[in-house]
Amino acid sequence: MTTSPDQSAIPNSYADVANHMDWSKKSSSPFVTTSFSFAWAIWEATRRYKSNPKQAVEIAVIDARAVAGRAVTALELLRKGAPKERHQDHWKWYRFATEAQDVLIYGYVPGTAVLSSIPILSLIPKLPSYFLNPNPNEEEKNFFGNLTWDVTQQRSGYQQFCQQMSEQFLRSSTEVRLRDTTTSSVRLAMCFLRPWFQRFALKDFQGAVDNVAELAYIIARWPGQWWVREHTEIWDLIQSMVHVIGEEVRDAQRIHALNEVTRLQGVVSELQLLTDEFMSVHSRSGSEDSADEGDPPETSSAPVSAPAPLVPPEDTQLLPGKTPSTVETASCVLTSFLFGAFAALFVVNSQRRDLALHFI
């Protein structure tokens, strides 16, 4: 379990945030930059990937409750600066921190706080329609050619990106808006949290549903908050959709567990048949040896020499009558081991079947 650092030891002065925001000194900063905004994360990830396609760019979803003791917003620290101590780039940093909704985490992000980490290439196909061109290019393998904004433009800032997405959303029809704020938002939220959701669907079903629904509602409100506020049914639709998806995921996991039990039962049955066959063969072999020993030897006038012993004199030959008992003991031990292994696999089985979700 990760312990939170002492609050008094966390840097929280204007000089600390100025040192972090200054690109020439950022390497010496004790903070890790994160963001409250999913849109900023998508915009920044696409920009970084397009500038260097060889690097693997992923968006990590972090549980804010797990880092609450070591996190602070950049705006909170920037506001502490007195007019005399403000850096010459103060207002530039202030505008940047406002747009990006920067959250500074002291030291590092604990692994237990990371709910999921999704490659940007997996997220792009799940984006709502206002992120994508109405006439997509099917030959574009990485889907970047289908994005509404041009990620190659150096002068295209985040503010322009937000304005462009909002305008495209508001230009669409009511039916398209409703689809983007319900099914498309749920699909993107599920893409962000799918690995975590599948793990917690059985452990804390309602908690998993609530978290995905809240993220989906944040995504739904982003392009047009006033329109979503006017349509109060959107929240109810999102909750219902996520609840249905959660039930499907939970049922799929149960079916997978039952199928695994059936498969293991078949394996145990086959091994039991092999064991019985082994016992039967050795029992017949022992009976034939006993019958051969009971027959009188044939008399012969020719002198014969005593056969050489096949085993050293000190070794005692196993009696045929005791062989089935040994095999039965081995069979019982093997069967007990297999059933024990089967029970352990059933209890600790953590495999989950992926549930493909498609919203039209």
From TrEMBL:
It holds the Pfam family DUF7587. InterPro entries: DUF7587 (IPR056009). Signal peptide: none annotated. The chain crosses the membrane at residues 327-348. Keywords: Membrane, Transmembrane, Transmembrane helix. Residues 284-324 are annotated as: Disordered. Residues 297-308 have a biased composition (Low complexity). Residues 7-122 form the DUF7587 domain. It comes from the Eukaryota. This is DUF7587 domain-containing protein.
